[in-house]
Design a protein that fits this description.
The chain is α+β, with helices and mostly antiparallel strands. It is built from four helices and seven strands, in the order βααββββββαα. The protein has a domain of about 70 residues.
């Protein structure tokens, strides 16, 4: 299943996220230009950071769908902009890992496919990972 085709359900990055990353790249380059003080190393570092942010934003534009589900299985993002099809027979577990760091609570959706583990956060799904896990379990056919 191609995640761009009509699926039972799919989750994608928030629409505003690539724009925020591009704005961050522009801000980093602007700060680099303002703070160079005849030191080209600062400008080079700012340029490297900006290129990384732009590449990250490009991934969000080129492959916005991170996870799709239908009665036959899951389609997950793999690599920079590729997708991998996981039939339900390969999916061993769907869990949500909850963590607290620096006083902030977060959840991470984990899809265990035996030889591979696929992790998705709220920024990948534009939804609460707990709700997505429930939707995945509800779509999975019972043996």
């Amino acid at each position: 299943m191609d995640p761009r085709s009509s699926a039972a359900r799919q989750w994608r990055v928030p629409a505003a996220l690539p724009a925020v990353k591009v704005a961050g790249a522009v801000a980093v380059v602007s700060l680099g230009l303002l703070l160079t003080d005849d030191d080209p190393a600062r400008l080079v570092l700012a340029g490297v950071a900006a290129v990384a942010l732009l590449a990250w934003a490009a991934r969000d534009v080129l492959a916005p769908v991170r996870l799709a589900v239908d009665p036959e299985g899951l389609t997950v993002i793999q690599g920079f902009v590729g997708y991998r099809r996981l039939p339900w027979s390969q999916v061993e577990a769907i869990t949500v890992e909850r963590r607290t760091r620096l006083g902030l609570a977060g959840a991470l959706l984990e899809i265990d496919a035996g030889a591979s583990l696929h992790l998705f956060g709220r920024a990948d799904l534009d939804a609460d990972p707990v709700d997505v896990a429930e939707d995945l379990r509800a779509t999975r056919p019972t043996p």
